[in-house]
Design brief:
single chain, alpha+beta, 434 Repressor (Amino-terminal Domain), 30% helix, 35% strand
Length: 315
């Protein structure tokens, strides 16, 4: 018994140390060991929270071979904090901290922490609008025009969507805008420009997430296509250095055009991609700025899940 007690004390001390300093996989492994749960039992507990994660994935996570990245995986991490009797946000914080250290080598990029927090906030805002994560629409085409103003700020954007309903009764779309750091989402405005009208809006100040309901004048049947256009006025933050768009699943064509004010053309621009918020950026490609049209663009014939964006350097 004394030996077992001593071993338990050592395991608890290791867990406390790991929760304070990380990294994530060491803390997760220590927490599972401290509770004495085999991975099959951890998986069973997660299923009771409505989260499905394979034993292999759990094993990879605690070995550091893989990291939780998808929204379902991040929900699993939050559930693990309860299952393993850990303080709220303890594992999520370590996951974000480790990625933030990597992101420090990419100064123009949004941090993993900010994207995780924004994803969590977005789910709450959608719940306030009684909107499911799956809005019942598949995107066939999305053309996005972004404006950078005279102060080098993200002035606003305009989006044109071509969609197809995959269930009956769809009559709205939830537009999501993630402003630059230090933006003021409560001052943002949405404008319905074609085949829609503005409904309710919600925002979260700390993360800069702004969502707006766009109402259709018809209820779509499964298989119906629809075209609509709207704009978001921003202009509430400081100097902008990139614009990113996330895709939860594969879809149709996406075109992104960034237009700059005449007096503030950047020195250079590039496109980039990420498989997920936690993945390194890849597919960097220099883009030529049209001095005549003061713009730069990218076209993706068929998007995959992940992130696409355009970045630019002022100096």
């Amino acid at each position: 018994m004394p030996h077992a007690t001593q071993q338990a004390d050592v395991t608890t001390a290791e867990l406390d140390t790991a929760l304070r300093g990380g990294p994530f996989h060491v803390a997760l492994r220590a927490a599972i060991a401290a509770r004495g749960l085999p991975l099959q039992r951890v998986q069973h507990h997660l299923s009771r929270y409505g989260v499905r994660v394979g034993v292999t994935s759990l094993s990879y996570w605690q070995q550091g071979a893989r990291r939780p990245q998808r929204p379902e995986s991040l929900r699993a991490v939050r559930a693990l904090e309860e299952i393993l009797h850990l303080p709220d946000e303890s594992l999520i914080r370590l996951l974000a901290d480790s990625e933030d250290r990597s992101a420090a080598r990419r100064p123009a990029a949004r941090s993993y922490r900010s994207l995780v927090e924004a994803s969590d906030v977005l789910e709450r805002l959608l719940a306030e609008l009684d909107a499911p994560l799956d809005g019942g629409l598949h995107t066939l085409g999305h053309h996005e025009r972004v404006r950078v103003g005279a102060r080098r700020e993200l002035a606003g954007r305009e989006s044109q969507h071509i969609v197809r309903a995959h269930r009956h009764g769809v009559d709205r779309f939830i537009a999501v805008h993630h402003g630059d750091p230090d933006c003021v989402p409560e001052r943002m405005r949405v404008h319905a420009l074609e085949n829609c009208r503005a409904g309710r809006t919600r925002w979260h100040h700390d993360t800069g997430v702004f969502v707006a309901e766009l109402l259709f004048d018809t209820r779509l049947r499964a298989g119906d296509t629809f075209l609509f256009r709207y704009g978001v006025e921003d202009g509430t933050a400081g100097v902008s250095r990139e614009y990113v768009r996330g895709f939860g699943s594969a879809g149709g064509q996406y075109a992104l055009q960034v237009r700059f004010d005449a007096g503030v053309l950047p020195l250079r621009c590039h496109r980039f991609a990420q498989h997920s918020a936690a993945a390194p950026r890849s597919g960097r490609q220099d883009l030529a700025v049209s001095e005549r049209h003061r713009s730069v663009h990218l076209v993706e014939p068929r998007v995959r899940s992940g992130i696409l964006g355009i970045g630019w350097d002022w100096e």
